[in-house]
Amino acid sequence: MLRFQHLVLSLSLVALASSPSQAADAPAVAALKEKGLTRSGRFFVIEAEQAALEKWKAARPVLAGHAANVERKSRADAAAEELAQLEASRVELQNTLSDLDQQVNPQGFQPGGFGQGGFEQGSFGQTGFGGQAYLAQVNTQRAWVRANLVEIASLQRAARSETPKDEKALEAEMQKSLEAVRTALAEFREAADAVVRRYDELDVDPAVKSAFQALEKAKLGGLKLGPTPEFGNALKALAKAERTYLEKKSPVVSRTRSRPRR
């Protein structure tokens, strides 16, 4: 029983100690609610902020989808360029191989000589050291060229695997996803700008200023006017997305609102 009475007394003291703060807090909070502000953690925010953030959440998968299409197009373009370079190298090597083949066939490299004048038997002829050495050199070059042609053929197969079967379909998909990105970013930009403008209006509203001053006197100065850090981060991401996908600078709607409000 004694412990119970002590607990009741402690609770009474706590209630008395907190009642002045609560009394000072209630009118201020009511004034902020009249302005359309509700408490969210350390911030008083407008309902439109959450609605704008929902638009940003909806835009993120749209951006990811278009980024994937851009990556696919980039790989396809790189593969096409590589294929062109490989084909040029293949043609050059094939011509070289044809020239070397001509040098060892009966018309190009004859046992008794080379060319119209020929070489004397015993020096560069079939039985001479010079002819055998030259033939060996040509065959070595042919083997090197053939090995490179095999390597090029392998690289061409790999490059073709990165090339879309229907380039027009990929281009159409990219355009479609880009339009979806433009729509999503425009919707969030419109909503975000409206939110920022409303916070700017509230920031200079005498009733709002008075309410926050009352909260500060009641030792609740840690409570601030929005937007929240989440909204600020979304605005930064929006500006980056506009630069990346729309190639434009974001319009300046207001001063930075991420700093603390008093």
Automatic annotation (TrEMBL):
Positions in coiled-coil regions: 76-103
Signal peptide residue numbers: 1-23
Keyword field: Coiled coil, Signal
Top-level taxon of origin: Bacteria
Designated name of the protein: Uncharacterized protein
Biological source species: Paludisphaera mucosa
Upper classification of the organism: Bacteria, Pseudomonadati, Planctomycetota, Planctomycetia, Isosphaerales
